[in-house]
Design a protein that fits this description.
2 domains, 4-stranded mixed β-sheet, 11 strands, about 25% strand, about 230 residues, 6 helices, Zincin-like, alpha/beta
């Protein structure tokens, strides 16, 4: 079954050849997934048709409750600081562990065949995101705390399934390690949002007024952050 990578997800599809059709059509069926129907064409051209409609396809798949393949494979696109970078996988039997190098344009994974499992690849990327979250986001939290006059007690980074961040009653701020996947304006909004919770522990009008005081354009940023999937 052919597949195409889009925003860290792999869209697999079935190509139903119909010689009598003038155009190509994409159909989403529950239990069958994505179907491309039309006259015979090369796989490369079929992939381009799927990629062109990728946002619509993913939205339809989500509505139907169809699981999308998120395996990390050669050619996958993995996000970092708002951009997607292609994954390269290099077999190296001399290694004893999975080694991930970010070149600035690609994610290069080097590993022996025995360690080539999705669990190992995911753990390796999680370690990368955790390290980069601490490196990139920690100084921004400190800077925003000084700019806003909103002090916090402690900053930690955790892998969370449903939340980008949280603030405890004693003003400990927890941020998701995956926050480092976001573009910097959204990271800054997340930081200001959690810092505002050091003063207001709910989402009342007083809270949003506090957010707006430090970030007037918060509404568009909040909408975009809610749209993105963890």
């Amino acid at each position: 079954m052919p597949g195409i990578s889009y925003k860290s997800q792999i869209i697999t599809y079935t190509f139903e050849q119909k010689s009598g059709l003038k155009n190509h059509y994409i159909i989403i069926k529950k239990g069958k997934g994505v179907i491309l129907r039309g006259r015979p064409i090369p796989e490369e051209q079929a992939n381009k048709l799927i990629l062109k409609k990728a946002p619509w396809i993913l939205k339809k798949l989500e509505q139907l409750g169809t699981e999308v393949n998120t395996d990390i494979v050669k050619g996958s696109q993995m996000p970092y600081l708002g951009s997607d970078y292609e994954v390269e996988i290099i077999r190296n039997e001399a290694l004893k562990k999975v080694v991930l190098a970010f070149t600035g344009s690609t994610f290069r994974l080097s590993l022996p065949e025995a360690l080539h499992t999705q669990e190992n690849l995911q753990k390796t990327f999680d370690a990368f995101y955790r390290a980069k979250a601490k490196e990139v986001i920690t100084p921004r939290v400190q800077e925003w705390s000084q700019r806003t006059g909103l002090p916090f007690a402690k900053l930690t980074f955790k892998k969370m399934k449903t939340r980008w961040g949280s603030c405890s009653f004693v003003n400990n701020i927890n941020l998701n390690i995956y926050a480092v996947k976001l573009p910097l304006p959204l990271i800054d909004y997340l930081i200001v949002h959690e810092l505002a919770h050091t003063r207001v522990k709910n989402h009342s009008k007083v809270f949003w007024a506090e957010v707006a005081r430090h970030m007037p354009g918060w509404r568009a940023l909040d909408k975009e952050l809610r749209r993105l999937r963890l």
